[in-house]
Write a structure and sequence with these properties.
466 residues; mainly beta; Immunoglobulin-like; five-stranded antiparallel β-sheet; 6 helices; elongated; disordered N terminus
Length: 466
Amino acid sequence: MVLALAFSSCTSDPSGLGKKVELPLKGNRVIHLAIQSPRTVTLRAEEQDKDPMEEISSLRFVFYGGASKDKVSHIRELTVLPSTTLSDIPLTLPAEDYRLVVIANATPSLKASTQVGSPLSMLENFTPHRASDFTTDHPLRLAMLNSQGAVEVSRTAFSSPTPSVTITLESTLARVLVYGDPTLAGGAKKGNLPPSYIITAQAKSIAALRPLALLPNGSMEVPGDGSSPEDRYPKGEYYDTWLSTPPTKTAGLLSYFDPLSVAINTIEWCAMPTSEPTSNSWKQVRGIYAKESTIPPTAYLTGTVPTVYLRYPYIPSGLTLTAKEGWLSFQGQYYTETQVKQMLQTERYPDEELKEALTRAGITSASFTKPFDKEGLAFYYMGISYYTIPIRHFDNTKAPLKNSIGRYGLVRGNEYRIHITNIQRAGSPLPAKLEDNLTPLSEEKAHHSALTLAPVITRRSDTELY
């Protein structure tokens, strides 16, 4: 969305706007703001088939004044209704020099950071946040802010009869879609439970106003440089630090899901559709939205790259399971949960090695309420296999090497579509522990990606799981 600001010296009554800060009209001027967009934006749509990354329900205009233009001096707010004319929004304001930040769909967290007297640094500094700090409820909306930092507004612009300032808004979050109806190798079958996914290894702290970005040629973005949003890769909180010295730990620096909590289903998973959705209903699911998480090539490690946990109901060839039944793997042999429980009850085993392993692991008939992986025994609770998928950002045309800038990561305003095409084998019975896992990232297969420009930047990749 592009916000074009037109300034005029005429007076007008900005009825219903700026109620948060009452100002006398004497000495004030009227700023006329016009909102334009290169893409279709639905305003305050109540239907569930709309895109939360593009809809606008409200606008908050935050003016930073004073000698340094680094503290909030004036706030104006507008509720966007279906009848609202966005081509000319008059706001009464003293004609001074400012820096301006515009927030669409401002959340309580963002409002708290932009009260009168608040420093601009509250939006620019890296601060611990949850993704929910940038979403509104009922209906779901995502906050949007300036795409290239606070914009300078000169007092001389107040006399301009035509738009003289342009601001591009961008979403504060990214989103990830995983979909597919993969081919299963070796006669394996898909179980009855629905495949699903979550996003882990995200940055703990982000800046509400996006930091300036690296470009594929290695140069830095400059405000107003006309660089394409598709080419930008912002520096995360630890980018420069990890560029010179790779991390020695990630605990406390990144946000992870606990593997055991993941395995016993105490969190909300996102459904994995079998085909690419043709409607926007999937975009209403909160779990698909993620915080911007970027890292330098020196830190492309298993535990630092934002990752998808995929759970898939994988049943090896030759096994038939009842509803929600699990299975056991041992030395290349597979057994249903029912078969193993019968072995334990009757003390009759197909071989001594399996018996000894079950004994060493302390497995009893009551042990099958959660997955386990010990003594060579891998129990797939309810038949679920777990896979990890590092999230690619730039495709091979912009990041052709494994150490190319921006090869991995999540960047706000981007949509990542990961198409699962093939699964070669069972995954892990438990999700991999990523926290403090500093092993080099392994690419088992190149991700063939194609970039297209949609209502948000969409990055696609096809993935086979081995």
